[in-house]
Design a protein that fits this description.
Length: about 150
């Protein structure tokens, strides 16, 4: 077995080297980016989780369901929007959690979200709105890069 290594790309900024001139401004080092003193505020009303869709469409994340105060009696609506699945507590919803506290995504919802058995999904729960947004693997990168 052979292991290949990649050389790091580091500009040569030695004095007199014109190739590394783009890494300097008029012979001076590049300015540093200011670092904020306080960390960014975290939204305490939003939870994130990753779960696997099983062969029956169940997404097992009891901790998220507990944080939302969802029980097996909680009625849910499931809607697809732009390839994402929105699960919301809805007194007129036609879906419920399983007895074990798992969200079961019906086949139509899985097809709309391009989900298959074994797919890992990103779950984003908005506690104030009693909703969970299900991000299929194909949507993780585009969402994570915008936020």
């Amino acid at each position: 077995m052979t292991i290949s290594y990649s050389r790091p790309i580091v500009p040569d900024t030695a004095p007199g080297n014109t190739r590394g001139a783009s890494a300097r401004i008029a012979g001076q080092p590049l300015p540093l980016i200011p670092v904020p003193v306080s960390p960014p505020q975290r939204l305490s009303n939003v939870l994130y989780s990753i779960a696997t869709v099983d062969d029956r469409g169940r997404v097992a994340d009891r901790q998220m369901a507990a944080a939302l105060n969802w029980t097996a009696a909680t009625r849910l609506s499931i809607r697809e929007h732009d390839g994402l699945l929105a699960v919301a507590a809805d007194p007129h919803g036609v879906f419920k959690l399983t007895k074990q506290g798992h969200v079961r995504l019906p086949a139509d919802a899985r097809r709309a979200g391009h989900l298959s058995s074994g797919d890992r999904v990103l779950l984003v729960a908005h506690l104030d709105h009693q909703t969970v947004t299900v991000f299929p693997p194909s949507r993780w990168t585009s969402w994570c890069c915008r936020h």
